[in-house]
Amino acid sequence: GSDHLRDEVESLRRLAGQVAPCNPRGRPTLRGYTIIGELGRGGMGSVYLARRESLGGRPVALKVMPASMGASSRGRDRFLAEARALAKVRHPNIVTVHDVGTLDERAFICMELVVGSPLDDVIEQQGRLKVLEALQIIDKVLNALDYAHSKKIIHRDIKPSNVMVGDDGLVKLMDFGLAKS
C-alpha cells in the first residue's frame, strides 16, 4: 500500500543521491513523473499510476525495477529487455512503451495506462466467460503474439494475469519481462 510506495520513493531518492521534488499536492516527482499510487507489484517490479508532466500530466503506468534487483546488473538487464522488446512493437493489442530510463541502478519503463482489469481478475469476478467473449479475447491475444513473433519477439509468459481487459473492451498483452528476441 502507501507504506510500500513511500519506501520505494525513499529508496529511489537515496539511490539517486538527491531528494526527489514534490509537486504542490505533496506527491513525489521522479524524473518528470508525479507518482500517484501503486497499481500492482510483481517479480520484475512495481507498477505505479503516475502523471507524465512533460505530456501535460498524461496518466501513465510507471514500472520501476525493485530495489532488490538494483545491485544486480543481470536483473537490470532483464528488466530493460522487457522495455527493448516492447519498444520494437506497435500493435493495438500490445501495451505501448512511452519512455525507458534509469535512475542510477534502478530502471523504469513508462507505459500507456490501460484502465481495466487483468483477465484472471475478470474471470474470478465474473466466473466462466461466455464462449464468444473468450474467443474474442483469445483472437486479440493471438493477433498480438503473431505480430510480436513477426518482430522476432517471443513473450514466454502468456497467462491471464498478463492480459489486460480494458473497461472499453480493448485487450492488451502486457509484461514482456521474460521476452526473448
**Biggest sheet record:** 6 strands, antiparallel
Number of E-type strands = 9
Low-confidence region ranges: 12-22
The rough form would be described as: globular
Strand residues, percent: 25-35%
* Spatial strand order of the main sheet: 1-2-3-4-6-5
Average pLDDT score: 79
What does this structure look like?
With 181 residues, this protein is an alpha+beta fold. Helices cover 32% and strands 28% of the residues. The chain is built from four helices and nine strands; from the N terminus they run H-E-E-E-E-H-E-E-E-H-H-E-E. The protein has a six-stranded antiparallel beta sheet, sandwiched between helices. Strand 1 (29-30) and strand 2 form a beta hairpin. The radius of gyration is 17 Å and the shape is globular. Residues 12-22 have low confidence and may be disordered.
Secondary structure: elements and pairs:
Blueprint: H1 2-16, E1 29-30, E2 33-42, E3 45-52, E4 58-64, H2 73-87, E5 97-103, E6 106-112, E7 116-118, H3 119-126, H4 131-150, E8 163-166, E9 171-173
Antiparallel strand pairs: 1-2, 2-3, 3-4, 4-6, 5-6, 7-8, 8-9
Brief write-up:
The termini are far apart. This protein is an alpha+beta fold. The chain has helices at residues 2-16, 73-87, 119-126, 131-150, and strands spanning 29-30, 33-42, 45-52, 58-64, 97-103, 106-112, 116-118, 163-166, 171-173.
